[in-house]
């Protein structure tokens, strides 16, 4: 084996509780399925009883549309998210890291696949979803519009971006729409491996040479605030939050989740020996939480609207891959047709 | 073939295939190509580990010290930087058919790494041959593209299949016939990779692969 620190079994401090929540959500899902709420139950009754809405159930149009928007955005994020990390696969500095990164990016394609499948249960096709992404009608997470400039970004993304994604997504394992909740349980289990590998990779850099350490700190400096912005605008300005909470799609507000993430990261940063780039970061005894500087929400809005450092690059890449693959998809269809005729 | 030749074929193939990540014609194919890249990388690592420090061998050697055949180092399209799916499928058909034959022989002779790899190469071969037929017998455009790739890559198959040519042809020719593709008539058979004589393409591939590792000598990752 190559040279690397023995961090295989290193836990990401504070992340295990979250994985426990995934297990609990899975158990709750099974017991909800076992309880038979008569087929006549109304949408509101199912929501009130904390049971799952299934594709065949009657549901308000706004619930269906809101879910399609949210699941699609999540699926698109997995697909676009392959680019910033894919950027380093061919340059990974050890074969072991190359294998881990390749497997991780492959997982993201897999997550995209099962999230698209979950969205399809709501009566929309893959083609329509792809078209909505390529035409810019549907969005993906703004975090992927930032560049991956050094190898340490692979560690920082794993630790901070996947960490924020887990904090966001664990409550979705209990979301009221069955196919989405089930997809999220699967996604969260894999994401926790992603976060762990990122944290380990960053840990090795932080303990490494001066240049590696500087690389790690620089990556944390660049990814910290964009990661905080992943939780969305502050509650007062969030357009979809209230209704989503009522329908039990969302279980916590943006600000609650952001705080949870900060509280989790501070002790982890201490173990890494890296500094979070926030001079205001300190424990508030009264609140029982860390005080911290909010991310620049004006910047978030600029990136959402298309003017982040890599928006154009990411979309051009995606469109080009889609267009260049058109002849392959046509050939597969033509051949399938020939075979079915024979 | 020596373990180093087997390792270098698989390592360089993995490096080439990973260029496809996030660029495949469908999401399913993105998963499949990454999976094949991972399998190739896995086999390369096992053989390299059997020879010494895998990273020293992968990152410390220059192109003239690599022992892969020239086929695997070619760009996965007509020119450097190109990614052509038809080209990639024909390339994978050639490679996986040869690897399956060699791993099967080695496994029978007691090579444990090959015994593990043979199952994976069967899957790679199935994937490549299904796509070869779909492309060859799909649309006019896909047929032309697959035939063009076949014409360009065929000469490099000789070095790949040294010593197993007949058996390899018995796997590949029926697939090409089913795909309505014509076996090229050229007899040009470039070689030299096994002696460290490579095409212009390998040093670019290694420059990219080795740049970061070499910029920080002696550290852990």
Your description of this structure?
The complex is a heterodimer of chains A (342) and B (221). Chain A is mostly helical and 342 residues long. Helix content of chain A is 64%, strand content 2%. Chain A has a two-stranded antiparallel ribbon. Chain A is globular. Residues 1-9 of chain A have low confidence and may be disordered. Chain B is mostly helical and 221 residues long. Chain B has one domain: Ferritin, core subunit, four-helix bundle (Ferritin, Up-down Bundle). Chain B has helices at residues 3-17, 27-51, 54-60, 70-73, 85-108, 112-136, 140-153, 157-160, 165-178, 201-215. In chain B, helix 5 packs antiparallel against helix 6 and helix 6 runs parallel beside helix 9. Chain B is globular, with a radius of gyration of 17 Å. At the A-B interface, helix 3, helix 4, helix 7, helix 12 and helix 13 of A face helix 2, helix 3, helix 6, helix 7 and helix 10 of B.
Key phrases:
heterodimer, A: 342 residues, mainly alpha, 2 strands, 64% helix, 2% strand, disordered N terminus, B: 221 residues, Ferritin, globular
What is the straight-line distance between the termini of chain B? 31 Å
What form of chain A results from the Cα inertia axes?
Answer: globular
Number of strands of chain B: 0
Order of secondary-structure elements of chain B: HHHHHHHHHH
Secondary-structure element pattern of chain A, one letter each: HHHHHHHHHHEEHHH
- The total of helices of chain A stands at 13
Briefly note the structural class of the backbone of chain B: mainly alpha
How would you characterize the largest beta sheet of chain B? none
Helix tally of chain B?
Answer: 10
Widest beta sheet: strand line-up of chain A: 1-2
